[in-house]
């Protein structure tokens, strides 16, 4: 078991990049992590890691050992999963990542409904807008609202939404409504710093996608904050329709530049392909597909 533990520590150092990161994840001291690696290298009789004050890198032996160790650890995990499911109880901890807006608005009710059907599955949900590297192993499932996907991942579409441009009736009364995208440069714009398109807004002109760089007045990485600002008349925002559904229903925001709206954005559940898919993962993804097919996210 000591060898298996040391192997797990070694793989996480390779994946996270520092001893300190692994120590925090495992709630151990950095000295203890170093001890595990020293034990592993001593038992093998080779150095696995090159250590400098700046970074850690793999030796040639370390590269080979990591690839084989990772496969063995995955096999052990799959063995545990397959054996535990012989009792027909779906259980375990599922680590899920989602964007701040979508996760905060829609994932909690979905998780509640799922856990009523599968009470032995624990969900650890992280909300952020950063790109998720599933190969690092810290996340089992990433929910993405996107028009582009990384290679090498399985993607199941669970829903879709439209990317639209919005302003409040009060803002339009005071500043007028832009009728063409070129007029946006004369308006106060509210810019989301964490979109895949950076500081550009995306539109469709003559069946072609164009990027428009706006002059922003307020910027934030939180889409809900920007929708609130738009509802208060602070400016114009571009956002997925699912993020502004409540504001639209209450008449606090209206859509503008409808003729230049791009095609719908898909919302995907993404995960790595494995030889054996844990039941906690497959049941959750299947449930999300059914759940979002039955609700209307755009009419709260």
TrEMBL record:
Query: What InterPro entries does this protein's entry cite?
Result: LysR-type_TF_proteobact-type, LysR_HTH_N, LysR_subst-bd, WH-like_DNA-bd_sf, WH_DNA-bd_sf
CDD domains named among the record's database cross-references: PBP2_CrgA_like
The HTH lysR-type domain extends over 1-59
Q: Has UniProt tagged this entry with the keyword Transcription?
A: yes
Q: Which UniProt keywords apply?
A: DNA-binding, Transcription, Transcription regulation
Report the record's Gene Ontology biological process terms. Answer: DNA-templated transcription
The terms under GO molecular function for this entry are: DNA-binding transcription factor activity; sequence-specific DNA binding
Q: Which PANTHER family match?
A: HTH-TYPE TRANSCRIPTIONAL ACTIVATOR TTDR-RELATED, HTH-TYPE TRANSCRIPTIONAL REGULATOR
Protein name as annotated: Transcriptional regulator
| Species of the source | Methyloglobulus morosus KoM1
Lineage per the UniProt record: Bacteria, Pseudomonadati, Pseudomonadota, Gammaproteobacteria, Methylococcales
């Amino acid at each position: 078991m000591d060898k298996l533990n040391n192997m797990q520590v070694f793989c996480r150092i390779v994946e996270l990049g520092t001893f300190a990161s692994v120590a925090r994840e495992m709630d151990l001291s950095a000295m203890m992590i170093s001890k595990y690696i020293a034990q592993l290298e001593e038992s093998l009789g080779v150095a696995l890691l090159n250590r400098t004050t700046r970074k850690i890198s793999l030796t040639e032996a370390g590269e080979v050992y990591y690839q084989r160790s990772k496969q063995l650890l995955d096999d052990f995990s799959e063995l545990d999963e397959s054996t535990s499911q012989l009792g027909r109880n779906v259980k375990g901890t599922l680590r899920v990542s989602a964007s701040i807006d979508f996760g905060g608005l829609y994932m909690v009710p979905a998780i509640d409904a799922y856990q009523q059907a599968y009470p032995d599955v624990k969900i650890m949900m992280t909300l952020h807008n950063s790109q998720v590297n599933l190969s690092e192993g810290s996340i089992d499932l990433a929910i993405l609202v996107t028009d582009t996907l990384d290679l090498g991942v399985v993607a199941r579409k669970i829903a879709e939404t439209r990317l639209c441009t919005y302003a409040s009736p009060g803002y339009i009364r005071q500043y007028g409504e832009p009728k063409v995208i070129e007029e946006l440069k004369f308006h106060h714009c509210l810019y989301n710093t964490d979109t895949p398109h950076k500081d550009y807004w995306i539109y469709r002109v003559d069946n072609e996608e164009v990027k428009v760089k706006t002059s922003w007045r307020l910027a934030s990485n939180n889409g809900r904050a920007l929708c609130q600002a738009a509802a208060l008349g602070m400016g114009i925002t571009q956002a997925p329709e699912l993020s502004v559904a409540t504001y639209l229903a209450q008449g606090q925001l209206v859509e503008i530049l409808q003729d230049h709206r791009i095609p719908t954005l898909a919302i995907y559940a993404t995960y790595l392909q494995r030889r054996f898919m844990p039941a906690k993962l497959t049941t959750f993804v299947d449930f999300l597909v059914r759940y979002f097919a039955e609700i209307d996210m755009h009419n709260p």
